[in-house]
Amino acid sequence: MPRDRSGRRLATVLFLDIVGSTSVASELGDARWHGLLSRFRTLVRDRLKAENGREENFTGDGFLATFTQPAHAVRAAEGIVEDVRLLGIEVRVGLHTGEIETIDGHIGGVGVHAGARVMGLAEAGEVLVTGTVKDLVVGAPFRFRDSGVHELRGVPGRWALFALEAVDERPVPGPSHPEEAGVARAAIVSSERASRRRRWPAAIAALIVAVAVATTVVVSSSGKAAPITMIKIDPATGQITQTIADGYYSEHEHETLWTQNGTIWQATPAQVVGRDPVTGAVRIPLDLESEIENGTFGLGSGWTSVPKTDDTSTIEKVDLVSGGVVAQVDVPGPVESMATGDGSLWTVTKGGLLAQVDPAHMQDAKVWQTSATAAGALVPEAGYVWICDCEHGRIVQFDPGTGRERRVLTLPEHGLIVSVVAPTSDTVWVLDPQGSTLTPLDPKTGEQGQPIGLGGNPVQATIAFGSIWIAAGASVYQVDLNTLHQTTIPIPDPAFAGSITADPDSGTIWVANCGCPR
User: Distance of CA 379 to CAs 144, 254, 425, 467, 507, Å?
Assistant: First the structure.
């Protein structure tokens, strides 16, 4: 890509936004609108990636992207116009090729302004380009229609504009009829109502309190439960000091352990049990039969989210002795992930609606829209909320104090956010189950450190006793945070380390066997 030392470069700029977004949002309501936006952003980002585009900015219902090749930008624009019609919406797109400059991490310059003004002149479902773009793609299988000469507000001169008519000899279809678009939106809403409810153990297995890793559930081909249910490790020696086979078995479930109120909490297919952190003995069985979306432990309580309406969920605060619900508050739903940290309960929807709940008063939650379009796990720590937009390789660092995103970090391929080292938040640790690596990421610069090879099947991690402890099937790996020295702790065959938690007060590490095949 042509570039000079001043930060200027030549690029094709793509601007797009949703036509009539305000009326569509009013029709759908906030939660459904945000759900549609989540799908919209996914489709756009997939198309940008396919055509080697670079997302520069996201504006809620629009995008700014750049391309090194103008033909890729034209194809991306045409593809996006068609893709989003499946959602019952129309976009307008403007393209211009020119010099842009980067200032404080954001692109600007006349070339960017020109692209924005071109988009503003486009009709619904139209890709409008400047003469510069048209001239640069001569010989490519595109056909354009002359759209006249225009003044672009704030940009010197008069500009010849052209509308894309065909790609690969295939005419670009016009906008959908409003009734067809309404039917498509109704179908999206109906599909989101399905599969909303999960039972407590399944939901609890999908979340962790201090460490956030995406869920993977593996079913054993043998169907036989391994005799060992729990394994205790001494963090000082790295040795296994106890194994338990008591019938409370987290069969086929990963990430089923938490530490709260001096108790190790374990989710099983039948119930949630509280174990003594020293002996491992079960002392608190909780039969939570309510069907819920999600759940977690923290701040001295259990927490569940229960569907209330299509766009609202009710957070229930659960007493850890009686299992009874002691308080409730509504948040945007459906809740995709929950976690506790920095004195609050936090929830996030798939579409990136982040909510903060005061656990003491359980009154109206604070809500923000983030740029996460496929939000998964979240880690509230060191004054920020870190949201894993893992499907798109992004970590969103959100500052609740300002109500704004501080930065967006790029994840290593297949990476999953593990945790943020407190109290300085100087490292984000990223676990890659497919590559079996653990990678440090600088949250200030986004620079990736040297990956640490793990081997095995890493599925969950926790930070305690100066190390990162990773449950990885046949082994548990201990990585010293100071030296990055790695120790391998073999797990007795045929047990599979599928969950891990630490109790600093008793000085123990506990591992749950999921019975998954090695």
Answer: 48, 18, 11, 18, 23
Vertex 252 angle, CA 248 and 254, to 5°: 90
Please report which helix (H) or strand (E) contains residue 37, including its range.
Answer: helix 30-50
Distance from C-alpha of 297 to C-alpha of 320, rounded to nearest angstrom:
9
CB within 8 Å of 483: residues ≥ 6 apart: none
Nearest to 298 by CA among 318, 313, 279: 318
The type of residue at 125 is G
| Whole-number Å distance between alpha carbons of 502 and 505 | 9
Strands 127-130 and 91-103: parallel
Nearest to residue 470, comparing CAs of 515, 416, 394? 416
Nearest to 423 by CA among 506, 507, 341: 341
Bridge partners (DSSP) of residue 128 are 94, 163
Say how far apart CA 3 and CA 369 lie, in whole Å.
35
What is the sign, positive or negative, of the torsion defined by CA atoms of 207, 462, 354, 390?
negative
Q: Which of 299, 204, 324 is nearest to 257 (CA)?
A: 204
β-sheet with 378-381: strand ranges across = 378-381, 384-389, 394-399, 404-410
The counts of H helices and E strands in the chain are 7, 39
Residues 6 or more apart whose CB falls under 8 angstroms from that of 26 comprise none
Q: What pLDDT digit, counting tens, does each position of 216-264 carry?
A: 222 233 444 447 889 999 999 999 999 998 878 776 566 778 887 788 9
- Would you state the pLDDT for residue 410? 75
> Using CA atoms, how far apart are residues 101 and 477, in angstroms rounded to an integer?
45
Query: With contact defined as beta carbons under 8 Å apart, do 253 and 205 qualify?
Result: yes
- Residue ranges of alpha helices (H) inside 176-319 are 178-192, 200-204
Strand order in the sheet with 282-286: 257-260, 263-267, 272-275, 282-286
In whole angstroms, give the CA distance from residue 100 to residue 12: 9
Sign of the Cα pseudo-torsion (10, 372, 120, 52, in order): positive
Q: Residue 147 above 90 pLDDT?
A: yes
Residue 31 burial (C-beta neighbours within 10 Å; 0-12, 13-18, 19+): buried
Helix axes 30-50, 178-192, angle to 10 degrees: 100
pLDDT at residue 5 is higher than 50: no
**DSSP assigned state of 311:** T
d(CA 495, CA 231): 9
- Prior bond to 440 cis, omega within 30? no
Tokens standing for 474?
């046949």
CA nearest 407: which of 444, 441, 382, 381?
444
Q: pLDDT digit string (tens) for 358-398?
A: 998 898 889 999 998 888 778 887 788 888 887 777 888 89
- Strand pairing partners for 439? 430
